[in-house]
# Entry
Amino acid sequence: MPDTIGYMVMGYTLAVIILVGLVAFLVIRARSLRAELEMLKTLDEEGELPAKSASGVLVTK
Amino acid sequence: MNTQQVKTDQPIYSPNRTRLLNALTVATTISIVLAFALALFYAGTDQQQGQVQRIFYIHISAFVGGSTAFLITVLAGIAYLRTRAPKWDALAVSSVEVGLPLMTITLVTGMTWARPIWNTWWTGDPRLNSMAVMWLLYAAYLTLRGAIESPERRMRYAAIYGIFAFVSVIYVFIVIRIRPDTLHPVVLGPSPVESTAKGSFGVQDPRMILAMSVNMIAWMLVPITLIWHRVRMENVAEQVRALKMRLLNQ
# Structure
């Protein structure tokens, strides 16, 4: 039987890295969006006009 | 305080649906851990290939998971073209964003298996080339979306593109069953042609069948769960965009 365990470990490690990376991306992006939504809701409820940058992006005070 | 309330203040999802998604997430996590355990510690070791043969449990299953995601893109694309409802577009793009990493897993695990068995990381084989083309087609789907400014045109073109791109998935699946000049083995099911496949093995042992079956189920649950989460994320992103527009127009 050939000794190919190194390649097996490499394959599984790469698969886990990609899968965990995908999940991490989804979790981080969802948290960031929820935080942004909460901030915008607060601004909306307070009736405050946020400052705008030159590019038109909302900037918090 | 603004009198005009945006719909972001209202609960969007019923608690039952959220509970179902949470249960599905737990089931997917358990099944993927179980699938890895069965593939690594329970299934027998192939006498000719050694431990590297275990890669096939995730190599094939990740392809099945990616194909499931791309099939959802097709169904969502058809639904969008029929109804023009943006929710179908959100489902389509979410499916591609989840399916592409799964196909990347198929590609990298295949290359890792090929190195000791074929003595090369990559070769100009019909299966490998068609797989690479398919991967590029779906990567281009995401690029295409970013290039079209008009939301309506973007959703329409993406729906049509997503439907036709699935032809590449079907071709990748059948190419090793119709081309006799491929190195890639047909692991599941018989091959109708005499091929030059190198590295073939059978999945007849009950332990291998169990490991493969559990992996298939687990890797099909992965895209379904992640797409569901991704669609919810898209809905939040849409609320953020709507609120930003409102605040900017005040």
